[in-house]
Specification:
mainly alpha
Length: 175
């Protein structure tokens, strides 16, 4: 027989511990709702990344890109929103999307592209829109003074990143 006297006490103790753990978790959850700040304009992020996924296929190295897989990837990545401190607003996002689409047209035609009065390489614009006028709001926020070191030669802040961070378009090798 598998039942031994006194086992009821063990089961009751185990259930009490489980319920008290669940109750503690609920109380802590109520005391600290959410995970922090809300995402900044996830829909704007999706619009930008959808335009990039559509446009980048004409660029060298992306010819076999699965556009639908790219859009699915960024649909999920954009749940975190833009990597900006504040929402740039729909007009700024629309200008950026239009510029990316124009760069996509230039890439398909194989011609130089003029965006905001500057001639740019279309594929460079599509891959790194944060480096160009219509989309500069995509640059990640500057490092805080506690994160940044200083260059002793000129006193300029250095965030240690080397170059601006940008979400890269995934290669077309999966889906």
């Amino acid at each position: 027989m598998w039942y031994r006297p006194g086992m009821d006490a063990c089961f009751r103790f185990g259930r009490a511990v489980s319920w008290s753990g669940a109750l503690l978790g609920m109380m802590l959850g109520a005391a600290a709702p959410g995970c922090g700040i809300d995402p900044v304009n996830p829909d704007g992020c999706r619009s930008i990344e959808d335009a990039r996924c559509d446009a980048v296929g004409a660029c060298p190295g992306y010819e076999s890109l699965d556009v639908d897989a790219c859009k699915r990837y960024y649909r999920d990545q954009c749940l975190h929103g833009l990597s900006t401190e504040s929402d740039p607003g729909d007009p700024a996002i629309n200008q950026c999307v239009d510029a990316i689409k124009a760069a996509g047209g230039c890439a398909k035609a194989g011609t130089p592209c003029t965006i905001s009065g500057a001639t740019v390489d279309a594929c460079t614009f599509i891959e790194h829109p944060e480096q160009f006028a219509p989309c500069t709001f995509l640059s990640p926020p500057a490092a805080t003074s506690s994160d940044a070191g200083t260059d002793s030669a000129d006193g300029a802040a250095d965030d240690g990143a080397g170059e601006a961070a940008s979400a890269e378009v995934p290669s077309g090798d999966g889906g």
